[in-house]
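Postdoc handover notes: sequence design on the structure in folder B. Input tokens:
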């Protein structure tokens, strides 16, 4: 595909393909394609559109909304909402489909388009490919008169959809047995993103909160904050004596954690502790966890130790989702903090992940550092190499291939070498895992240098 990557369409806002004109094309093509794949919307059918807090989001929301109305659908603008919130709402409200305007953890200058079907799931590769085929097809009738779509106010629903999602997440917080004990103190980094308006609504009544980076201004989303910049949260947890820290990314579809000592707890550790807890309670459907090839060897060893079956996929939470649906799993995700719990929502949900970790802490009586010990992590080095040429050319460059093969031979049976192009940026990711941090760092830097030399 030319435009859709591992998580929708993403790039520099107001530059091709993230222009208003292209957002209109994508939306109109999506209407035609999804009408074929799902039951055709009724005359009063509607779609949902929402966004994170980027300055450019309104530009793309109004463009996508205009195209949907031109195709005969009403449009409900949810404004600022987590990606997981729009996934929850599209099925709950019976919308034809939903569009999320977000570039997730990218800087504010970028933006993106993610599309969810009426079932709440992200679209398959096959459907996205069909949408791309429709992009420049100008045929097809446009409704006129009363058949043209309109703006439908979110207030026309009995309960505001974003508020309803927040109340649902809050309802998942389990109450402790017996008399209430002292509230846990939690430091939360909202990444100045979509979770910012909801954090107090969800957590304030049950926990003692210390909030940072929850004042979005359109430009500060993900800027030195959130799940991709954990240093500030680590400092706050240590200085405030918090029991743990939670960091979301810009659209709150991922969450990472900091334990009471200031150590970062990643997605592998979170998936492991949740899966082990579910197995102990008899709730781990099909005894299965689905993760990606980026998962740490320590995670794999932990699952084997606990007799939990593992399926690995290529990188991308959509790939994890596809395998979960095919195999009947209910928990899976990525080391980055994208965690799917299909018994609770249809996509990666950072807020539900946070609630689930807090529930395990309460249920077990253990600190986060104790729970995280279920994974004994192998040293892992990841280098993101920006390239100016086609990011896939490393696969055919003889010198780069030779450097990679040399590393693979060196770490055979005692580590892993994984080189892959980013699905959302013009990068090649170099990951090596092994027992000796210095050795894997040197090997990764050698590969990265060769890629820069040949593709930079």
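Designed sequence:
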């Amino acid at each position: 595909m030319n435009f859709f990557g591992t998580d929708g369409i993403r790039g520099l806002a107001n530059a091709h393909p993230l222009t208003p004109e292209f957002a209109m094309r994508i939306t109109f093509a999506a209407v035609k394609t999804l009408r074929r794949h799902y039951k055709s919307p009724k005359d009063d059918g509607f779609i949902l559109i929402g966004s994170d807090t980027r300055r450019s989001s309104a530009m793309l929301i109004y463009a996508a909304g205009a195209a949907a109305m031109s195709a005969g659908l009403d449009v409900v603008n949810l404004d600022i909402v987590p990606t997981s919130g729009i996934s929850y709402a599209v099925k709950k409200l019976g919308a034809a489909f939903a569009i999320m305007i977000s570039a997730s953890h990218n800087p504010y200058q970028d933006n993106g388009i993610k599309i969810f079907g009426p079932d709440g799931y992200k679209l398959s590769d096959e459907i996205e490919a069909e949408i791309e085929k429709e992009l420049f097809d100008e045929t097809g009738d446009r409704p006129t008169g009363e058949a043209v779509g309109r703006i439908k106010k979110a207030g026309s629903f009995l309960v505001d959809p974003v508020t309803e999602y927040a109340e649902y997440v809050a309802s998942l917080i389990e109450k402790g047995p017996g008399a209430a004990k002292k509230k846990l103190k939690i430091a939360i980094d909202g990444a100045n993103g979509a979770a910012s308006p909801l954090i107090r609504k969800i957590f304030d009544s049950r926990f003692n909160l210390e909030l940072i980076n929850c004042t979005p201004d359109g430009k500060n989303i993900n800027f030195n904050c959130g799940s991709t910049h954990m240093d500030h949260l680590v400092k706050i947890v240590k200085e405030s004596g918090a029991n743990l820290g939670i960091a979301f990314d810009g659209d709150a579809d991922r969450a990472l954690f900091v334990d009471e000592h200031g150590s970062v707890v990643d997605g592998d550790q979170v998936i492991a502790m949740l899966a082990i807890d579910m197995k102990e309670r008899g709730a781990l459907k099909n005894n299965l966890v689905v993760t990606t090839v980026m998962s740490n060897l320590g995670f794999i060893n932990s699952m084997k130790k606990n007799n939990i079956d593992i399926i690995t996929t290529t990188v991308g939470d959509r790939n994890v989702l596809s395998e979960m649906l095919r195999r009947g799993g209910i928990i899976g995700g990525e080391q980055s903090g994208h965690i799917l719990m299909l018994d609770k929502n249809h996509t990666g949900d950072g807020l539900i992940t946070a609630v689930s970790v807090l529930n395990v802490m309460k249920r077990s009586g253990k600190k986060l550092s104790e729970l995280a010990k279920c994974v004994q992590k192998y040293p892992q080095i990841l280098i993101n190499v920006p390239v100016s040429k086609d990011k896939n050319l490393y696969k055919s460059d003889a010198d780069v291939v030779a450097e990679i093969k040399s590393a693979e031979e060196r770490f055979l049976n005692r580590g892993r070498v994984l080189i892959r192009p980013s699905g959302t940026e013009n990068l090649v990711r170099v990951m090596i895992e092994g027992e000796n941090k210095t050795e894997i760092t040197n090997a990764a830097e050698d590969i990265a240098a060769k890629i820069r030399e040949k593709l930079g």
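Context for whoever picks this up: The chain has a mean pLDDT of 94. Don't rerun without checking with the PI first.
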